[in-house]
Design a protein that fits this description.
alpha/beta; ABC transporter transmembrane region fold; Rossmann fold; 2 domains; six-stranded mixed beta sheet; four-stranded antiparallel beta sheet; binds adenosine-5'-triphosphate
Length: 647
């Protein structure tokens, strides 16, 4: 009978494990299921997943955060996840098989333990013949342990590789998507936010994926498998034990929901304290000017004390929860021991089977407990993944699609000196991020080929905006920008930026690379001779010689020298492209007068024989222009040949 019972127990463990596994896998909606579970539970997870600044302080905030979490979870796509996992499908399948095997082997351990204990109990002495009867079951159990260790190693390492590949693939795809977005996209999304998508969110998504596959599969299989084993071994004892569980769960749920509410209040209070500190630290000059240091400290102390009081209550609650959990677990063990003792007395169980039963109870409880944080991880991972997937869905309005048929990659017609290279016709424009603020209100101007056009006007007049339309960072809301008589939209934006326009901005952006590499940026195929020629034209060749292998951090000593060098490199970089249209956006405005004199000389040389738009703020720049355009309030106030302007 004992052998039959053990075989039954072992089979029930496997079947139960299969059922647990099936339920886990079949609940493909587990993400939204867990979302609803947690929204019922009081939203502590929502607070955890929201960035600290968004911690809910009011019910309205809480529902806004919760809406955004639901939106993000909604963006999660199994199809996209599948496509990311496809190259590692074989590794993933092997990891899943190993993980399930580890769980099934684990639920067989009580069977082995019962055999070892029973054979030990039957020992009559310590001679070799007697010990040999224990060796068989012990070696079998050792085999199970060894096999379980082997598959555990396999699934953890395989899944680690799959997870890392998944994260790397997701990061690559996200970065590729970000780099193809138009400039308006970066007006809407701050760089800190995008970096957090690339790093933190991908990390959270990877961790959730790994725990859902490894911990989820394994613990679901183990929980139901162990319960199957327990019921098969002793239905009566199991009924006793299973009746006890709802009571424990009810108490746990009640206490858990109280703790979640308390945790939410403590987090909100801590956020309020942080807000007070943030305000004081960022407005430090005002705090000091009005002598409010003591008052700010009093305010902060009040908020911190309230947060600490809530945190202390939370700590007490968590302690109580932990103590009650221990009591409940020990209560189960004691119940099983007492009930099991009765069963042994009646001859329904052996001592070995009772020991194994206790191991099975602990496995079932531990596995069930391990399943519960998975829902939190799943929500966090799905929210993070949803945020990343939402970005992956972004499509730029101005798309660089090199080689797309129909787009011009040369001037539509040859333009000889003095003819219009660029013309703005009644252009109206508002930035997509602020559609109500009209920045250009019917601007018309002409840039003849081979001429230098200076654009001047007050700050905010829209001068830089004109250059942003010429580089096709944005398209006009109304009106047209014409290049060689054809709408700029009929040209390939990649060609416009690579070959047509060379932009020298006010704040040159240098990358952490050598000076050569910085000049070559935008035309990586340029030869050393071409780089040096461009550098010489921009009068930056002196720096090149001195810092042939240096990084940008060691350009020159002194702020003035550094700025001068950076501007010279930006000029060389723009010239290397040999652009048809050179745009100088207040390129010298941040320089001191000595540096400006040096750079201006370089610019004069660079501008020779080119079509140039120069946004000017100094008379010296305007003097060398052929035409001057004066802008104000998004309009062209005056446009004239310099000769007329001078009169
Ligand atoms: N990315 C943007 N999103 C929204 N508004 C913007 C953006 N860039 C500029 N603006 C606004 O557009 C208006 C015109 O800015 P623009 O930079 O073209 O002026 P500007 O004449 O070049 O001024 P400055 O000489 O100070 O650079 C300003 O009110 C500015 O605040």
């Amino acid at each position: 009978r004992r052998g039959v019972r053990l075989a039954l127990g072992s089979a029930a463990a496997v079947v139960g494990g299969g059922v647990g596994l099936g339920c886990y896998v079949a609940s493909s909606d587990w993400l939204s299921a867990s979302a609803s579970l947690f929204s019922l539970g009081g939203g502590v997870v929502r607070a955890e997943t929201a960035p600290p600044a968004e911690l809910a302080r009011t019910d309205e905030d809480a529902s806004a955060v919760s809406r955004s979490v639901d939106d993000d979870v909604g963006k999660f796509s199994w199809r996209l996840l599948g496509s990311l996992l496809l190259p590692d499908l074989h590794l993933l399948l092997a990891a899943v098989v190993a993980s399930v095997a580890a769980a099934l082997l684990n639920v067989q351990i009580p069977v082995g333990i019962s055999q070892v204990v029973d054979s030990v109990m039957r020992l009559q002495g310590a001679d070799w013949d007697q010990l040999k009867t224990v060796m068989g079951p012990a070696l079998r159990l050792l085999g199970v342990y060894a096999a379980q260790s082997g598959v555990t190693f396999a699934y953890i390492s395989l899944l680690g590789c799959v997870g890392e590949n998944l994260a790397a693939r997701l990061r690559r795809r996200l970065m590729a998507t970000l780099l193809t977005q138009d400039v308006a996209f970066f007006d809407r999304h701050r760089s800190a936010e995008l970096l957090s998508r690339l790093s933190g969110d991908v990390q959270d998504f990877k961790s959730a994926f790994k725990s859902a596959v490894s911990q989820g599969l394994r613990n679901a299989t183990q929980t139901v498998g162990s319960l199957g084993y327990l019921v098969a071994m002793s239905p009566r004892l199991s009924a006793f034990f299973l009746l006890y569980i709802p009571l424990v769960v009810a108490v746990g749920l009640g206490l858990g929901s109280m703790l979640r509410a308390l945790s939410k209040r403590a987090a909100a209070q801590q956020a309020a304290a942080n807000a007070v500190a943030h305000e004081a630290l960022t407005q430090m000059r005002s705090v000091k000017a009005f002598g409010m240091e003591a008052e700010e400290l009093r305010l902060y102390e009040g908020q911190v004390e309230e947060a600490a009081a809530l945190a202390r209550r939370l700590a007490l609650g968590i302690g109580l929860f932990q103590a009650l959990s221990n009591l409940a677990v020990n209560g189960v063990v004691l119940t099983v021991l007492c009930g099991g003792g009765v069963c042994i007395g009646r001859g329904e169980l052996t001592a070995g089977e009772l020991t194994a039963y206790l191991v099975g109870v602990q496995t079932a409880m531990r596995s069930a407990a391990n399943l519960s944080p998975l829902f939190g991880h799943a929500i966090k991972g799905a929210t993070a993944g949803g945020r990343v997937f939402r970005l992956l869905d972004s499509r730029p309005c101005i798309e660089i699609d090199r080689g797309r048929p129909g787009l011009l990659t040369e001037l539509a017609a040859p333009v000889s000196a003095g003819q219009d290279l660029v013309r703005l016709e009644n252009v109206r424009f508002a930035y997509p991020g602020r559609p109500d603020a009209v920045v250009l209100d019917g601007v018309s101007l002409t840039v003849p080929s081979g001429c230098v056009v200076a654009v001047c006007g007050r700050s905010g007049a829209g001068k830089s905006t004109v250059t942003q339309l010429l580089t096709r960072f944005y398209d006009p809301t109304d009106g047209r920008v014409l290049l060689a008589g054809r709408d700029l939209r009929s040209y390939d934006p990649g060609w416009v930026r690579d070959r047509l326009v060379g932009l020298i901005p006010q704040e040159p952006a240098l990358f952490c690379a050598t000076i050569r590499e910085n000049i070559r940026y935008g035309r990586p195929e340029a030869t050393d001779a071409e780089v040096e020629a461009a550098a010489r034209l921009a009068q930056a060749h002196k720096f090149i010689k001195a810092f042939r292998a240096a990084t940008t951090r060691t350009l020159a000593s002194g702020a003035g020298g550094q700025r001068r060098s950076e501007t010279a490199i930006a000029i060389a970089r723009a010239l290397l492209k040999d652009p048809k249209l050179l745009i100088l956006d207040e390129a010298t405005s941040a320089l001191d007068s000595e540096s400006e004199r040096l750079v201006q000389a370089a610019l004069q040389q660079a501008m020779q024989g080119r079509t140039v738009i120069v946004i000017a703020h100094r008379l010296s720049t305007i003097e060398s222009a052929d035409y001057v355009v004066v802008m104000g309030n998004g309009r062209v106030l005056e446009a004239s040949a310099l000769a007329i302007f001078r009169v």
